[in-house]
Design goal:
- The protein is mainly β.
- It has a single domain, classed as SH3 type barrels.
- It has two helices and seven strands; from the N terminus they run ββββαβββα.
- The protein has a five-stranded antiparallel β-sheet with strand order 6-5-4-3-7. It has a two-stranded antiparallel ribbon with strand order 1-2.
- The radius of gyration is 16 Å and the shape is elongated.
């Protein structure tokens, strides 16, 4: 890991800090619950808009069309072209409390 400092003392590093946001991802075949990692000071949508082939999801649970859990894994890469919609999980919790 490298560190660089500017004249004001600001530290620059090659490590990207991210925040894990629990999310629900609907693909063309499965429902996936897990964490999407968003860079600090950026929006959830900014991570979804990145020009990358895959979206990384950690602590993922893959749920089939019948509602049964198919897989659990610490890391899953979802091909962005297969994503139908994405919802931050906190949004679903807020709706469920009303």
């Amino acid at each position: 890991m490298t560190f660089e400092f500017d004249e004001k003392g600001k530290v620059f590093t090659d490590v990207v800090s991210k925040v894990a946001i629990p999310a629900v991802v609907q693909t063309t075949q499965h429902l996936i619950r897990g964490n999407i990692h968003v860079r600090r000071d950026e929006r959830f949508k900014d991570e979804l808009d990145r020009d990358e082939l895959f979206l990384a999801v950690t602590d993922a649970t893959v749920i089939g069309t019948d509602g049964q859990i198919l897989h659990r894994t610490r890391f899953l890469a979802i091909r962005r072209a297969q994503i139908v919609w994405v919802l931050p999980a906190q949004e679903t919790e807020e709706l469920g409390e009303e």
